[in-house]
Amino acid sequence: MSDDAMEKLVSLCKRKGFIFQSSEIYGGLNGCWDYGPLGVELLRNIKEVWWKAMTYREDVEGIDASILMNQRVWEASGHVDSFTDPMVEDRKTNERFRLDQLLEENGIDVAGLSAEEMGTLLRERDIKSPKGNELSDPRQFNLMFKTFVGPLEDDSARVFLRPETAQGIFVNYLNVQAATRQKLPFGIAQIGKAFRNEINTKNFLFRTREFEQMEMQYFVAPGTQDEWFDYWRAERWKWFAQIGLPERKLSWHEHQGDELAHYARAAFDVQYEFPFGPGEIEGIHNRGDYDLSQHEAFAGKQLKYFDEEQRTKFVPYVVETSIGASRTLMACLVQAYHEEEVKGETRVVMRFHPRIAPIKAAVLPLVKRDGMPAIARQIAEDLRPYMRVLYDEGGAIGRRYRRMDEVGTPFCLTVDSDTLEDQTVTVRARDTMAQERVPIAELHAHLESRIDAWQIP
Ligand code: ATP
């Protein structure tokens, strides 16, 4: 996808009600976006596919922990000390940049380098700011947002907006285990907002300050973590097809040396081929016993698992799968966007996997007379308990089809004069524009089976 197409996609997202700039009438707020009527539906559908894949199984439970937590959680997790990015400042304009990104933009591979090594490279190569000015020495910037609970703004009342959902899972691990009587190995999954005061936000939804994560922590007996790490890598890789992201656009990136987060023993990212290059959408991490051991030490509470068969007690190891819902949604938007020539006109079509498409079917009376609107409305009503359906009677049928193509509606159901005779409608497919007649009584089953059978082009 070209830069030009990316611009068109961003504008389509606003025009059609997928994504709006946050507080737009006030000039916006950097790194924050709002989901419009179609965007929220798309996001919910992606989350639903994830939730079902991850928790509708015997060995994974779901939770929804609060965003604000005791500040000691973040001391224990290492985020207060280590959740930082190296930052440099333009000495003239005071603009701030993430050092690693700036070096990469200057063609320098920073994989595995420490902040110090990057600082040295900055000087050696005499890198300037994008405006050509001198840069300050790098310093570490903590990405957590701070606020206060209650009326007193002192250190004891300080809390952080969570920068990841994982910690809500760790601190609840024994509660969940006791409540569900799960035995190792088992996992806990959660979907929720996370906040990071990113130094630079860019690329639309890719790097934002407020976003949503879908995380799962899988607790395993020490010694089995490598096997489970491989298992979850394979499971997660397969999952992307369910939301229409093809394997050919995905790649693995293995973290090396200093690139590894403070908690991680091994980490692999799944990258999607964005218009600006490959970008991480999911991380799969072997966290060892780092988090639970830290919480044991900081909270002074036992977080050991008692293995009844072996009569032993130990701190489980953790394999984590961590995916950004908003970043994944952006990948789905990029993947879906297509322009093609049809009869001398450009057709814009969002080829979402029908499973995540915000509207599954549009019901269209060919004309506004002969009882067609009433039949069409009834069809829409009958389908609504099962899927999101739109009724549209405004304008020429071709224009109504195009409007649905642009928002990725996989099926248009047209009621015409034949319908009055034989109780069938035309089902027009978004991708091929092919049409077939289907009895009204069979519509629901017909659509469901086509949604399930859809293949990534
Ligand atoms: P990056 O290196 O891009 O900053 P990260 O390695 O810090 O990301 P993780 O901490 O592994 O990311 O977070 C897990 C997932 O959360 C990422 O794969 C991504 O999909 C999502 N995510 C992280 N930061 C952001 C952000 N600022 N905006 C949107 N999504 C994000």
Q: First CA to last CA: what distance?
A: 16 Å
Ranges where pLDDT stays below 50 over 5 or more residues in a row are none
Q: Strand order, biggest sheet? A: 3-9-10-16-13-12-11
The percent of residues in helical segments reads 25-40%
Question: What is the CATH topology assignment of the largest domain?
Answer: BirA Bifunctional Protein, domain 2
Overall pLDDT score: 95
Number of helices, counting only DSSP H or I runs of 4 residues or more:
15
- What is the top-level CATH class of the largest domain? Alpha Beta
Q: What's the architecture of the largest domain in CATH terms?
A: 2-Layer Sandwich
**Largest beta-sheet details:** 7 strands, mixed
Structure commentary:
- This protein has a seven-stranded mixed beta sheet with strand order 3-9-10-16-13-12-11, sandwiched between helices. A five-stranded mixed beta sheet has the order 20-19-21-22-23, with helices on both faces. A three-stranded antiparallel beta sheet has the order 5-4-6.
- It has three domains: 35-82 and 144-332, BirA Bifunctional Protein, domain 2 (2-Layer Sandwich); 84-142, Herpes Virus-1 (2-Layer Sandwich); 359-453, Rossmann fold, CATH 3.40.50.
- It is 32% helix and 27% strand.
- It contains 15 helices and 23 strands.
- Strand 22 (424-429) and strand 23 (435-439) form a beta hairpin.
- The longest helix is centred in the first third of the chain and has 19 residues, at 37-55.
- Residues 164, 196, 198, 207-208, 211, 213, 280-283, 322-324, 326-327 line the site of adenosine-5'-triphosphate.
- Adenosine-5'-triphosphate binds at residues 164, 196, 198, 207-208, 211, 213, 280-283, 322-324, 326-327.
